[in-house]
């Protein structure tokens, strides 16, 4: 993941001249040295001890790109050294750990935010704007399918609840963000299908209750070969006047009821306008830029941990429901 972050820093006009990488830390020094060489960071301090490198370089911000199990100690260390911290997702391995990080950031007077980079793609921003316009009336339901046969190797294939914890956080965050609704409860059934190359939880089906009587359904699998969806899922948004379909890539199809007669009402197509702010459609680069913008003017970034914890609560609510086979209320 560090390659994706450093590529965004090196290659995006949004970030040119805004960040100087002064240190790289990894438990394997050779890994950090190789990454420094790859991105021509010969002046950066290389180390295996985060505390020592932070003390030597005294940076303004820390980019936390570690595996989830190491996140809490890395964020805690960064905040203790006066850094603003931008973390990979998920922001914590438990909801209590997430709450603790929110409290620690507040106590330190520093910003802690999470790279929910899929908020910052054109399709998600377009849908947010389209739904806000009321074009299909009042939203009553949104539904998504995520099916990909993903062979990562490495730590993901050993994780528990791998789909919900490592991938679904993106989808659930988008589901909360696009309609601007609050998650209230969930019922989830989690499985590890026959033939799965994951240790646990490669597939899940969930029903979420959102505010304003909106229902969100999620069907997903990371062990589904033969017909991959987009990484952003395939979506259906149903309103009181019509429906919007999005394939998770470039195809949008919106239709609204055109008259009030007939068994099946006549439908009229609607255009889904492009996002108004193209700066917000560049994935990792956009979320890093938004983080920097927020720090520079003293506001809260869009993906601050005190907001992102609501998406994390959806994940852990689903995991608890799958474990207990019961509907679970989502609370912070």
TrEMBL record:
<dbReference type="InterPro" id="IPR036291">
    <property type="entry name" value="NAD(P)-bd_dom_sf"/>
</dbReference>
<feature type="domain" description="GFO/IDH/MocA-like oxidoreductase">
    <location>
        <begin position="124"/>
        <end position="244"/>
    </location>
</feature>
<dbReference type="GO" id="GO:0016491">
    <property type="term" value="F:oxidoreductase activity"/>
</dbReference>
<keyword id="KW-0560">Oxidoreductase</keyword>
<dbReference type="GO" id="GO:0000166">
    <property type="term" value="F:nucleotide binding"/>
</dbReference>
<dbReference type="InterPro" id="IPR000683">
    <property type="entry name" value="Gfo/Idh/MocA-like_OxRdtase_N"/>
</dbReference>
<dbReference type="Pfam" id="PF22725">
    <property type="entry name" value="GFO_IDH_MocA_C3"/>
</dbReference>
<dbReference type="InterPro" id="IPR050463">
    <property type="entry name" value="Gfo/Idh/MocA_oxidrdct_glycsds"/>
</dbReference>
<protein>
    <submittedName>
        <fullName>Oxidoreductase</fullName>
    </submittedName>
</protein>
<dbReference type="InterPro" id="IPR055170">
    <property type="entry name" value="GFO_IDH_MocA-like_dom"/>
</dbReference>
<dbReference type="Pfam" id="PF01408">
    <property type="entry name" value="GFO_IDH_MocA"/>
</dbReference>
<feature type="domain" description="Gfo/Idh/MocA-like oxidoreductase N-terminal">
    <location>
        <begin position="18"/>
        <end position="114"/>
    </location>
</feature>
């Amino acid at each position: 993941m560090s390659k994706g972050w450093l590529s965004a820093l090196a290659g995006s006009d949004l970030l040119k001249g805004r960040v100087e990488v002064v240190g790289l830390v990894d438990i394997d020094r050779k890994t950090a040295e190789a990454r420094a060489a790859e991105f021509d960071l010969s002046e950066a301090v290389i180390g295996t001890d985060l505390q020592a490198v932070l003390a030597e370089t005294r940076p303004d911000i820390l980019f936390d790109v570690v595996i989830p199990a190491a996140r809490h100690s890395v964020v805690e260390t960064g905040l203790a050294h006066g850094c603003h911290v931008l973390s990979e997702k998920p922001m914590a391995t438990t909801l209590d750990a997430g709450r603790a990080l929110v409290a620690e950031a507040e106590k330190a007077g520093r910003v802690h935010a999470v790279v929910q980079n899929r908020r910052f793609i054109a399709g998600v921003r377009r849908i947010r704007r389209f739904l806000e316009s009321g074009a299909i009336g009042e939203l009553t339901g949104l539904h998504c399918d995520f099916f990909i046969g993903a062979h990562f190797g490495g730590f993901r294939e050993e994780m528990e609840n791998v789909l919900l914890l490592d991938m679904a956080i993106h989808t659930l965050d988008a589901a909360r963000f696009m309609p601007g609704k609050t998650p209230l409860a969930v019922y989830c059934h989690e499985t590890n299908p026959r033939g799965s190359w994951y240790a646990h939880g490669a597939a899940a089906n969930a029903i979420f209750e959102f505010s304003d009587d909106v229902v969100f359904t999620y069907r997903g699998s990371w062990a589904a070969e033969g017909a991959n969806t987009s990484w952003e899922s395939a979506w259906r948004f149903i309103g009181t006047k019509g429906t919007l379909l999005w394939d998770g890539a470039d195809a949008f199809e919106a239709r609204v009821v055109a008259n009030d007669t007939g068994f099946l009402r006549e439908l009229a197509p609607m255009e889904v306008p492009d996002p108004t702010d193209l700066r917000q459609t560049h994935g990792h680069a956009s979320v890093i830029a938004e983080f920097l913008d927020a720090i520079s003017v003293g506001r809260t970034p869009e993906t601050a941990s005190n907001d992102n914890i609501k998406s994390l609560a959806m994940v852990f609510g689903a995991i608890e429901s799958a474990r207990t086979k019961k509907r679970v209320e989502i609370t912070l």
